[in-house]
Write a structure and sequence with these properties.
Elements lengths: L2 H10 L5 H10 L8 E9 L7 E8 L5 E5 L6 H16 L7 H11 L6 H22 L3 H4 L8 E9 L2 H13 L4 E6 L9 E2 L15 E2 L1 H19 L4 E5 L6 H11 L6 E3 L9 H8 L4 E3 L6 H9 L5 E2 L3 H4 L2 H14 L2 E2 L9 H13 L6 E2 L5 H6 L5 E3 L2 E3 L12 H5 L15 E2 L5 E2 L2
Parallel strand pairs: 4-5, 4-13, 5-8, 8-9, 9-10, 10-11, 11-12
Antiparallel strand pairs: 1-2, 2-3, 4-15, 6-7, 14-15, 16-17
The protein binds magnesium ion (MG).
Length: 439
């Protein structure tokens, strides 16, 4: 026997049929072999105008399946098509145990990667696989991530008012419900409130835009006065934050951070749009107002320099927008190492599966900072048994294996996706001269 042939024979070991060898490999972790049998997309409005997308992955083991969130309120059908036409046919027959491998291979199989739709697809896949792994292990997902690093997950509430008195009243109500962390928004017009010139008012171009008009300098002038007033009424015990929602440009963002410093906020959120993250270097030099950033981030290069250069204090990605639990726990570890914290985005149109995915990462991560609250109407609790609960400012899971949530498919089907409002667009704010303001 030639030396090369001998080595081959040695490597091959005793003769074993290919199928049996595969079976042996599969059983070395003590678990029976498993394959993905189906990947089904479930959409529902939840009876409330939501545009939720879930991926349900079923396995070769009878009754063993997982559910993931691939939520995208604005490009819903693009995500549905990507899941049904592109991911599912590739996924069938694969081994659901290999979460990291499936995440990495799904990440590169589209060639062009990152971005919202690709990451939503990854998230649906990833959360469902973690759900399956947890159920298979008989443990909640957080146990597989290292176990509880805290007893429950503190959340911040949403408060605000059209005027200062009603803002204070809203903060007090939130405190009475047990919240220690409270976001305060102000004025009329939603995000950017306090900086809007009323519809039809102000000096505008002839025949131009007539609606609410955002004015940066007005906003920077108004908001510090609101926090001065709220602090004078409720003191410094509640931890207050505020969401600018990317409405400011560079130097105005720096100035707002400077002016808010005396009111000792927990953080200011999205003071700059993602296109202007370089400005955080300037901001850091003149203000210690903590910065929370990143609800629209979908690429690691957006948050990586901010975390590693210690330019922000909280990273606010949405778990289902960055690729699920696998991506979120890496962000949490990065935060721990560089002294940043997570504040995963929730609220609004988010779904209960995404909320629970954040919960499992939050409760097991040292890099955790705070979680945004989100509540659901009774019909959603009926439709999705296991929805996490917020009590006195803390988010609690149910301790069941996997993510701990299920979906009643016949009930979900009773609430099909409705017509999308505004042609599927997020609201566009404009200035007096009619130019677009970053949302
Ligand atoms: Mg926000």
């Amino acid at each position: 026997m030639r030396r090369r042939d001998f080595s081959k024979a040695l490597l091959a070991g005793p003769a074993m049929p290919a199928a049996a060898a595969q079976e042996y490999q599969r059983r070395v972790n003590g678990l029976p072999p498993l394959t993905i049998k189906d990947a089904k997309v479930i959409t529902t409005s939840g009876g409330r105008g939501y545009r939720w997308i879930f991926l349900k992955i079923t396995t070769s083991e009878p009754g063993l399946y997982g559910i993931g969130s691939a939520g995208n309120h604005y490009q819903t059908m693009a995500v549905v098509a990507a899941l049904e036409k592109h991911l599912a046919p590739w996924l069938i027959g694969k081994d659901p145990d290999r979460i990291e491998d499936l995440w990495q291979s799904a990440h590169v199989r589209t060639y062009w990667r990152n971005g919202p739709i690709n990451n939503n697809v990854l998230s649906g896949l990833d959360m469902a696989l973690w759900d399956i792994k947890g159920k298979r292990a008989g443990m909640p997902v957080y146990e597989l991530l290292g176990g509880k690093a805290r007893d429950a997950v503190p959340c911040y509430d949403h408060a605000g008012g059209a005027d200062k008195e009603s803002a204070v009243e809203s903060v007090r109500k939130s405190m009475e419900r047990g919240f220690r962390h409270i976001r305060v928004q102000f004025g009329e017009g939603g995000y950017g409130g306090g900086g809007f010139i009323r519809a039809g008012q102000g000096n505008r171009p002839e025949g131009g835009y007539k609606g609410l008009a955002f004015d940066e300098e007005l906003y920077v002038h108004t908001i510090p006065g609101v926090f001065e007033y709220v602090r004078s009424k409720v003191g410094y015990e509640p931890k207050l934050c505020h969401d600018v929602h990317s409405h400011l440009s560079g130097i105005n963002a720096v100035e707002l951070a400077r002016r808010l410093q005396p009111y000792q906020l927990l953080f200011v959120e999205d003071i700059l749009p993602p296109e202007q993250i370089q400005w955080f270097r300037n901001l850091r030099q003149v203000s210690t107002t903590p910065q929370a950033v990143g609800e629209v981030f979908t690429h690691p290069f957006e948050y990586l320099p901010l975390i590693t250069e210690r330019l922000i204090d909280y990273v606010r990605c949405r778990v289902s927008a960055i690729g699920g639990i696998t991506a979120a726990r890496k962000v949490a570890v990065l935060c721990e190492i560089f002294g940043c914290k997570t504040a995963f985005q929730e609220g609004g149109e988010n779904d209960p599966v995404n909320q629970l995915a954040a919960y499992h990462v939050d409760i097991s991560s040292t890099g955790f900072g705070i979680q945004e609250e989100n509540g659901f109407p009774p019909v959603v609790h009926e439709m999705m048994p296991g929805v996490a609960e917020i009590r006195k400012g803390y988010l609690y899971g149910n301790g069941k294996p996997g993510l701990g949530i299920d979906i009643n498919e016949p009930l979900a089907a009773k609430y099909p996706l409705g017509e999308i409002r505004d042609g599927g667009a997020y609201r566009t704010d404009r200035t007096l001269d009619g130019a677009v303001v970053k949302p």
